[in-house]
Each structure stands twice: as C-alpha cells, then as structure tokens.
Write a structure and sequence with these properties.
The chain has 142 residues and is mainly β. Helices cover 11% and strands 59% of the residues. Strands 1, 2, 3, 4, 5, 6, 7, 8, 9 and 10 form a 10-stranded antiparallel β-sheet that branches.
C-alpha cells in the first residue's frame, strides 16, 4: 500500500516523466523562399516563422506557422511521420485534426553556412485544378 508520504512523490515522478515524454521544441526560423506551383510567394509572408517539433511514442510531429503580411495569408502546416514507410523524409499532413493524403510530402534538413540548418518542406497535392506543389525553405540557427 502507498502511504500518504509516498503518494505525492509518485504523482510528481509521473508528472515529470510525462512532461519529458511529450515535450515540444519550439524554434524560430527565417523564411528564405516560398513558392506555390512554381510562383514565388515569399513576399506574402513575414520573414520569421515558428516551427514546433515533437516526438511522442515514435511518432514525430512538425508544425510550421507562417504569418502573412495580410492576416488572410497566414498558414499553418502540420506534418507527422510514424516511420512505417521506412523513410524519415516522407511525411503525412494533418489538416484540422484530419489526416490528408498528399501525393508527396518531404521535409529534409541539411547543414547550412554560418552554423545554421536549412529546412526544405516540399508538399505536393491534388486540387480542383490538378496537381500543385508548395515549397518552403527556412533557415534556423543550430
């Protein structure tokens, strides 16, 4: 049986473990290039973007928030990778809590100059007018 002294200690230990397991890492990056179906759309967004990444029980999440110059241009993309495909660069997109089946969604990270990383998000989709693609290039400090 648990004594009255052990119960708060055990509850605190469980809380500490759960916060480290479900911890999010939020970073700020700089938008270098944005394009929609080959058209440069970089000027529609503010240069600073917020990126949130987390890993919960083997499922990695990646959220990209872009603030638009006009509020209607603001975007939020949420991707996840459950590593079932065997490729760490192939992701699935979640939109409004529902998984969207894109044609392809790739997120790659490479080393950049001056102690930075370059993140390239390439998202291809099928729309009413046929196929389209969205590309964002973001740099973040290491």
């Amino acid at each position: 049986m648990l004594t009255k002294l052990k119960m708060p200690f055990l509850a605190g230990l469980i809380l500490l473990c759960s916060t480290s397991l479900f911890a999010d890492e939020q970073i700020t990056g700089r938008l270098i290039k944005a394009s929609l179906s080959g058209v440069d759309t970089t000027k529609l967004y503010e240069p600073l973007v917020n990126i949130t990444q987390s890993s919960v029980l083997g499922v990695r999440s990646f959220t990209l928030k872009l603030s638009g110059v006009n509020p209607r241009n603001s975007k939020q993309y949420e991707f996840y990778n459950d590593s079932n495909s065997g490729d760490s660069s192939v992701w699935k997109r979640r939109m409004r809590g529902v998984t969207v089946r894109p044609v392809d969604a790739y997120i790659t990270v490479s080393d950049g100059p001056n102690n930075t990383n370059t993140i390239v998000i390439n998202y291809e989709y099928r729309g009413r007018k046929g196929f389209g693609n969205v590309v964002y290039v973001v740099t973040v400090e290491k």
